[in-house]
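lol forgot to send this yesterday, sorry. struct tokens for the thing we talked abt
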């Protein structure tokens, strides 16, 4: 019986190293990274679901970061709110998901912020009437 339970044990010893690559300059797309993590790490169904939730949130953040209005902007803002919420009293909160997957939530937040800053870098000349704002935050709606 013990042999069976150890067969399903999850080794998260190098997950943080893998997450680092998500935020490096030559980073993989989040889907590629998480797919690689899925293949190399046997995960229980609940953790697999939590990993899928995190993957979807990262994809939503990256896909909608440039949205200025409408449904995509609303989806982006809801995703940012989920990332920034420090409440961990429900199973699929960002804090809880990171805890179960043994990821540091603040580290993931900082990585998303760095990614967003790189994505939002604009040329030095701007179209007439457009101004660049200094001091980006994780959310376009003022969360930090």
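and heres what i got for the seq, position by position
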């Amino acid at each position: 019986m013990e042999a069976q339970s150890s067969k399903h044990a999850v080794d998260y010893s190098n997950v943080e190293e893998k997450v680092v690559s998500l935020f490096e300059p030559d980073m993989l797309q989040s889907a590629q990274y998480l797919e690689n993590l899925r293949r190399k790490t046997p995960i229980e169904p609940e953790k697999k679901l939590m990993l899928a939730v995190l993957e979807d949130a990262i994809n939503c953040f990256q896909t909608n970061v440039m949205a200025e209005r409408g449904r995509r902007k609303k989806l982006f803002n809801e995703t940012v709110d989920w990332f920034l919420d420090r409440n961990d009293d429900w199973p699929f909160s960002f804090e809880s998901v990171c805890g179960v997957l043994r990821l540091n939530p603040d580290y993931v937040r900082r990585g998303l912020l760095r990614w967003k800053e790189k994505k939002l870098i604009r040329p030095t000349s701007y179209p007439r009437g457009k101004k660049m704002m200094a001091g980006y935050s994780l959310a376009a709606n003022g969360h930090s």
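Residues 1-8, 130-136, 140-144 have pLDDT under 50 and may be disordered. anyway ping me if u want another try
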